[in-house]
Structures are given as C-alpha cells and as structure tokens.
TrEMBL record:
Gene3D superfamilies: HUPs (3.40.50.620). This is Uncharacterized SAM-binding protein YcdF (DUF218 family). It comes from the Bacteria. InterPro entries: Cell_Envelope_Assoc, DUF218, Rossmann-like_a/b/a_fold. Transmembrane segments: none annotated. GO terms for cellular component: plasma membrane. It comes from Herbihabitans rhizosphaerae.
Amino acid sequence: MRRLLLGMLIVGGLVFAGTGFRVWQVARIDDRSHADVVIVLGAAQYQGQPSAVFEARLRKAKHLYDAGVAEHVVTTGGRQERDRYTEAEAGSKWLRAKGVPSDRTVSVGEGNDTLGSLRAVADAVKARGWRTAVLVSDPWHSLRARTMARDAGLDAWVSPTHSGPVVQTRERQFRYIWRETQALLYYRLTKASADQLGADLG
C-alpha cells in the first residue's frame, strides 16, 4: 500500500509538473497566423471602462487587427450584478474609440467565466461562417483558453498580451501559473469551469 501510495503521488506530481510546464510553454507562443477573427477574452470593467488587465488584452487585439491578422475582433464576457455594461460591450466600446470600425467588432456578452464565454462566442462565430480564431488573453491563461475553444469547435491558436498587471513580477507570474495549472487539470477531468477553485480563474 505504501508503494502504491508513493507511486500515485509520484505520478500525480509528474502530471502536475508537466501541465505547469505546458502552461508556461504556451504562454510564450505568439502565433500571428491569419485567422477569421481575433477573440479577446473578457476581464473586469467599470462602468464601461476596461480594467488594466482587460485594456492590455484589448491593446494586443487592436495591434493584431491593425497588422491584418484578422478582419474582425470579437469581444467576450457577461456582466456582474448591477453592472450597466457587459465586459464584451466595454471591450467593443474601447476598440471603437481606438479606431476599429463598428462593423468590424462583434460583442458576445454571455458567460461569466472562460468556459461559458468561449462556448457562447464559438456559437456566434460559427453562425457567421467563421472557423479560425486567434485568442488574446493573459499568457498563463492561454493554454486553458485554447483547449476550451478547440473543444467548442474552433480552430484556435493564441497570441497573448505580454503587458499589464498580470506579468509585472515573477512572483505574480508564478502564482498565475500555479492557479492555471490547477484550473486546466480540473477542466480536463470534469469539462467544467474551475471558478470554484479561486477568484478570477473562471
């Protein structure tokens, strides 16, 4: 029994470490291959103004749009109780203010976590005949977002932001990698959201 328990602990440790390495590895990818759409994962907004984390993602999406990576940008994210705007609406508003034409933005204001948002946006994107997508989120979030998007039927790759509060210190980076590793393993085991594992995981 001791050997069995020790073996299980070793295997579990290897799986966790391997997943953490993949989270770190995919965070370093910046794939700017041409796609049908750029999809921006939502984050907090305040009365229509994106938070610093969300704005960093939107700036990256605007850069990809300007570079011709895709002709449309899709913003995602629902609203919290008492919010006037969804995250998706706040994102589209910011993009329009920065010069992206309104007919080039699509707002999908459904879902209060990564899984719900990506399932909703996948339905909206496929309904328009689009299939390929570049996902923009924080680096450490990229692998889980890509996994969920592909499970939802999109041919997706990642071009994460490398600016903003999430990447400011090594301590914060390590904390996010740790949390994302847990969230990704939970999703792979259950195909469910990991929001109960901690705030901001989704």
